[in-house]
């Protein structure tokens, strides 16, 4: 049944993958850079998590990129980004205080 | 190397003229919108009865780009001077009639197609080409869910980000996008804002691959002496910079009411044959698209408002039917039995 199939696909995937944060430019390097993130999270959640780890408030500029290449839409899921862009078993998220690849 | 294992790709034989034709068809595509201000938010002295705005919106445009005209319409026609003065489009947000929050960074065509496929799951679907009824709210935007400012500038940033992500998916680098001069990058967005096909494609043509050239018959080289050996193998190796040579086609699958699925979509399968929707969909949505032996599809794929045949090749879709942001957005709807 089509509707049942759709419900099946709506279920949140509890799998966790490794996100590796890499500082760019003057951004501070964290003591811990590898984190396990549940794949159903939106990228926005990853950004908020990073902000918390860095201890930075909402207004402070924080720019994030995947593989030093692009900034994903905040509602893109970690699952989608990981499948498309993971290297060596983790998703690299670069962070900086300035807009490097605008 | 056997070239007889599979039929020649009809899509790879696409001529430059047909590529341009499809790109122009996509560009010229429009969808009907019926926009009304939430009646609870209409200020006291408004011209009730006139507060519905009908727009034939371009599929490749974005809601933030509709805002200036909407604001003018509301100020001039619907609201009285007092209310018009306090209109602040920074607090505006849109919902579908069914209460779905509409995203600023989704192309309008995608919003429309996603609505169509959501309707396909309801017991009594609306007419296929009915206007999409939107509710415009003037205050209290749910910023935690919208995640993006409603401005045209934020929309442009998101748009450029999508182009870069598509570029990166195709080639493993964004050098084609970053190789554009600032003027050219701005030119792509200007093309969207002005809805100018030539202005958009003048730049987009530098980053969007085309389908492989048509197989050429064996013939003498042109008289100009510019020698180029005729292709010995009519199938040809995929053009290195062409649609069949990318690492992955930028494709997203939108299920009605979510989720949105994205995964690597190589243009060719392991056996060298073109990757088609008939290969890709069963791989990722097997419950809706069973592998042919197991049963008939329970769903359909909508691309730019068209039910795509499952033989459609992903590389061709990426080159000819992608949105202006470089992405092939496939909306999945349920087939009625």
UniProtKB/TrEMBL annotation, chain A:
It comes from the Eukaryota. This is Autophagy protein 12. It comes from Vararia minispora EC-137.
TrEMBL record, chain B:
This is Autophagy protein Apg5-domain-containing protein.
């Amino acid at each position: 049944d089509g509707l049942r199939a759709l419900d099946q696909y709506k279920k949140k995937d509890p799998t966790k993958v490794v996100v590796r944060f890499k500082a760019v430019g003057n951004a501070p390097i964290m003591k811990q850079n590898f984190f396990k993130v549940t794949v159903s999270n939106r990228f926005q959640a990853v950004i908020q998590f990073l902000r918390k780890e860095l201890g930075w408030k909402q207004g402070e500029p924080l720019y994030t990129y995947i593989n030093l290449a692009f900034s994903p839409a905040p509602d893109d899921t970690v699952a989608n980004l990981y499948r498309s862009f993971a290297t060596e078993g983790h998703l690299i998220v670069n962070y900086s205080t300035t807009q490097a690849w605008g | 190397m056997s070239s007889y294992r599979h039929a020649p790709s009809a899509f790879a034989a696409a001529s430059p003229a047909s590529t341009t034709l499809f790109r122009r068809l996509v560009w010229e595509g429009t969808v009907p919108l019926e926009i009304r201000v939430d009646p609870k938010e209409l200020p006291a002295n408004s011209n009730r009865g006139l507060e519905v705005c009908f727009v034939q919106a371009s599929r490749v445009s974005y809601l933030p780009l509709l805002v200036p005209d909407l604001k003018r319409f509301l100020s001039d026609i619907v609201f009285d001077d007092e209310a018009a003065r306090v209109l602040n489009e920074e607090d505006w947000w849109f919902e579908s009639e069914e209460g779905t929050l509409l995203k600023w960074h989704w192309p309008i065509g995608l919003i429309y197609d996603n609505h169509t496929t959501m309707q396909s799951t309801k017991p009594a679907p609306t007419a296929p080409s009915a206007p999409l009824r939107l509710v415009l709210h003037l205050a209290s935007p749910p910023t935690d869910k919208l995640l993006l400012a409603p401005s045209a500038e934020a929309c442009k940033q998101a748009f450029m980000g999508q182009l870069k992500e598509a570029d990166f998916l195709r080639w493993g680098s964004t050098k084609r996008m970053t190789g554009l001069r600032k003027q050219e990058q701005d030119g792509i967005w200007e093309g969207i804002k002005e809805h100018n096909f030539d202005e958009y494609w003048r730049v987009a043509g530098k980053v969007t691959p085309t389908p492989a050239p048509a197989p050429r018959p064996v013939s003498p080289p042109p008289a100009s002496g510019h020698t180029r050996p005729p292709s010995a193998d009519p199938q040809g190796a995929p053009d290195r910079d062409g649609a069949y040579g990318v690492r992955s086609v930028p494709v997203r699958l939108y299920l009605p009411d979510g989720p949105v699925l994205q995964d690597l979509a190589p243009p060719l399968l392991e056996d060298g044959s073109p990757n088609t929707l008939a290969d890709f969909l069963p791989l990722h949505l097997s419950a809706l698209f069973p592998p042919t032996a197991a049963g008939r599809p329970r769903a359909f794929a909508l691309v730019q408002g068209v039910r795509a045949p499952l033989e459609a090749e992903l590389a061709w879709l990426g080159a000819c039917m992608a949105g202006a942001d470089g992405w092939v957005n496939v909306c999945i709807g349920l087939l009625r039995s």
